[in-house]
Amino acid sequence: MLDTVDSAYWRLEVPSVPRQGRTICLPTVRPPGHQRVLRGAQALLDAGYDVHFVWLGGEPGETAYHERVRETRLRPARCLRDRLRAVPRIAELARRAEADLWVVHDLYLLPAARRWTRRTGRPIVYDVHEYHPEYYSHRLFSSGVTQQVTQRLVWGIERRLAADCAGINAVSAELAARFTGLPAVATPNFPQSSDFTHRPLTPDLLRKVVYAGGVNAYYGMETLVETARLLNRAAPDVELTIVPVFTSDQERHAFFAAIDRAGRPGNITVLDRIPPHRVAELLAGHGIGLSTLQDVGQASLAVASKLYEYATVGLAVVASDLPATRRFLAGNAVAALVPPRRADRYAAAVLDLIGDAERVCAEVDRAAVRASGRLCWRTVCAPRIQALVEQALSVPAAARTDVPA
After folding, report:
1. What is the pTM of this model?
2. SS3 for 225?
3. DSSP 101-131
């Protein structure tokens, strides 16, 4: 039997498995409902651990949803500065949780986690799902030698801070391999099998296009909006649903300003962010998924989470032609790859898929059946996390840190 635990932002299932009697704290600067944090928590619950979230967003306070699921919320972050300022408070609340292990999702929290593990002898697992050296070197500097130096500097800091971790849970095998000498597993952002199931694709659904995820310059905001404008002019009956995720108020304002500059195309519907367990239902009502990731920072190395979701539900895909994206889509989806900055090519690719509906629907259905068997978090990734945490908790503190006995 399962107990379903609901909040305004997320849903988890608490299975009737033997309870471990140990609590895992998941402190993060991310908002409630962050999908990777939730997927990790579900894997821990399935293994019998209790979980305690500490994150930014919702009504500040603490809620015990279940004897095995607790949540502490701080004020929402409006920008990067807010998230950085919240780090000491997040760390303090995580310490108060009296957990047996922390799973840390943010580079910013590693210094506090390192101090905690050295003082208590309790382990930390670092869940790394960004290529931080590439990401920050691009964010801080546009190009040149300075960017290369920054990459090396950021990697040196991250590697040093991670040295006290009992394990690394990385979003890809390539990223896991960077942390040589530490126990590491690779868990791509595959969907939960219980939420994402394939439904047959029909020609009418191809006229419903969806974009779900981050909306800023890195994710191709201007390209996305211009694609909508071009589609509205060429085929007004093609609808584009955008479910944006913003990390700051500035991003929100920039997105709606871009829509205004484009003349507010009538084919765009913008939805508020929805809980992760409702994403699959939303996608199933569409036939084509967009990914306008730009060729900057870590983009060439990362596979956007939305691509796993599009492939599993059974959407045709129009995406930026970037190395990691290309490799993933080649074996898992029916996709058109286009130059990242060419909105005209995105729009043309959408219309080409619609124009070849019979073939596209048949091929997408076959690809989705294959993908749903391969891209399953619960069967592929969850056992790796569970084994990593079990190993971390079984290693004596003296063998892991220099904490006095």
Report:
1. 0.92
2. helix
3. EEEE--GGGHHHHHHHHHHH---EEEEE-S-
